[in-house]
Every structure is written in structure tokens, then in C-alpha cells.
Amino acid sequence: MDKFRIEKMTLASLDEVMEIEALAYGQHHWSRDSFVAEIDNKISNYNCAVSENGEIRGYMGLWKIIDEAHITNLAVHPSYRRKGVAKVLLLNALDECYADKIKYLTLEVRVSNASAINLYESFGFRSLGVRKKYYQNNNEDALIMWSENIFSENYKKRYEKLKESIGELILK
Asked: Of the listed 108, 121, 160, 168, which one is catalytic?
């Protein structure tokens, strides 16, 4: 079983990040300049999931605004999907939100991306609306998903179960 540690995305990370970005999103991926701007953005926090041998297997971006966090993107190298990389990244995002007293998380996801929707639902997100024709490459709709208040007793129980089940994937 592979294990991963979380590291801040840096300019030195971008070659590997851009490779994953292109594999995950095809020709309609973010540019290198977009990632550079996000690394320097005061409200953003970008992290990478790094394997034991030091290779980036996935990454996630998060904007923190007052008591909300917006997941801007999450991508995993195709060879490492369904191995817990996204779960480790999401658990880390929750840890950061707890530390920063952020109550809610939100994101948009393609309506056709059933595996991502299932992942987010397992983390307690639910769809609260649709952004029509959100994705520029094909005008696909996006589900708008929100977590409940992560400080609620109900969510804290979910978080503890997630932490217990995912903990074995995290490098110490």
C-alpha cells in the first residue's frame, strides 16, 4: 500500500503538477501561470500529495475566505487514482480548516464525474445547486457541493471516522 505526505506546492513542484494537470484535464487544463499566481495568492493554499519516493501523485487547491473554504481543484495522477491520494488531500484540507476555524467547504464538480461526486459525498458534501454550462470546453453543468458545518457534532464524528480509515495512508 502506498503512503503519502502532504507538502506545500512550490515553484519547484510545477513540472510534476503540470504533468498531472494535463493528464487529468486534457487540453483544457490550467496554465503554469495560473498555478504560479495561486502559489503567490494570499487566500490560497495549494498542497501536493507526495509518495515515499518523493514523487507528486496529486494536488489540491483551496481558497480560504473568512469562514469558508473553496476547493479550486483536485487532481490525481491517473496511475494513482483509487489509492487514497484524493482522500489524503481532502483530510489535510479538513485539518487546515479546523486549525483556521473555517466552518464550511464548497466546490464545483462536473455532473458527469460520478467518482468525484462519490468521493465528496463520502466526505459529507452534498449538492445544493447547479451552475449551468459552467465548463467552457463543453458547456457541461457543474454541481455546487457544500459540506455541513465541520464543527457540528455530526460532522466531527464523520471526520474522526475518515481520519481513522485514511490514517494508514499518511506518511509520518
From this structure: 108
For 62, 93, 138, 150, the CA distances from 8, given in Å and listed in that order, are 12, 12, 32, 23
Bigger pLDDT: 140 or 14? 14
The verdict on whether 155 is a catalytic residue reads: no
E strand residue ranges, the chain: 4-8, 44-51, 56-65, 68-76, 104-110, 126-131, 142-146
pLDDT digits (tens, 9 = 90+) for 124-171: 999 988 878 766 667 777 889 999 999 999 999 999 999 999 988 887
Question: C-alpha distances in angstroms, 147 versus 53, 125, 127, 133?
Answer: 33, 4, 9, 23
pLDDT score for 136 = 65
Structural domain range at position 35:
4-169
Q: How many domains does the chain have?
A: 1
CATH number for the domain harbouring residue 109: 3.40.630.30
Helix (H, G, I), strand (E, B) or coil at 13: helix
